[in-house]
Amino acid sequence: MSGDFYSAIEERRSFYSITDEFVISDERIEEVVQLAVANTPTAFNSQTGRLVVLLGNSNKDFWQVIFESIKEGLAEEHIEKNKRKFNAFASGYGTVLFFEDYEVVASMQNKFPLFHEQFTEWSHQASGILQYLVWTSLEYEGFGASLQHYTPTFSSAICKQWGIQKGWKLIAQLPFGKPTVAPKEKEIQSLDQRVVIVK
């Protein structure tokens, strides 16, 4: 088991070329995601992370929403490039949306005013842990994925359709699917410059 754990860490990479071909069942996807959510540590056990898993047409709809939300701000020469990128994400099996529940964050700030400023930072730290766990877990199951950061404004209809609650703030997206191209070789900086052992 320990070997599997470290292998999963080493093999987690960014995959941008993905398809919607079957890898594991939707029930297994739900199980994997729920396991990550249940076991992600959070400050004061605040459990602020919220996830929405979009599959099928909902996944395609999401990336269309993203494209429409940023298109007007793009120069003409960048529109087609971004459209191809979002189409690539939409062609995957699904996308995990990572939210933080700011109503819970606010309640923790009121409950523990001494740490008022830190709770927002702690919330984002916990989200990062959750993103990593879900990402690594899905790739361990055979998917390829990449982490994205877009902040579209969702219509009330979309919020209702996807179960997005008031107070939820979108932090990141993880499009995933069956990988078709191996990731590029990853350049790792010298660990001697990044890790200091003091005895």
From TrEMBL:
UniProt GO MF annotations: oxidoreductase activity
Gene Ontology cellular component terms for the protein in this record: cytoplasm
Protein name: Nitroreductase
Nuclease recorded as keyword: no
Family annotation (SUPFAM superfamilies): FMN-dependent nitroreductase-like (SSF55469)
Superkingdom: Bacteria
Keyword vocabulary terms for this entry: Cytoplasm, Oxidoreductase
GO biological process: cellular response to oxidative stress
Pfam families xrefs: Nitroreductase
Record's keyword annotation contains Transferase: no
Subcellular location: Cytoplasm
Domain Nitroreductase: 9-178
InterPro entries: Frm2/Hbn1 (IPR033877), Nitroreductase (IPR029479), Nitroreductase-like (IPR000415)
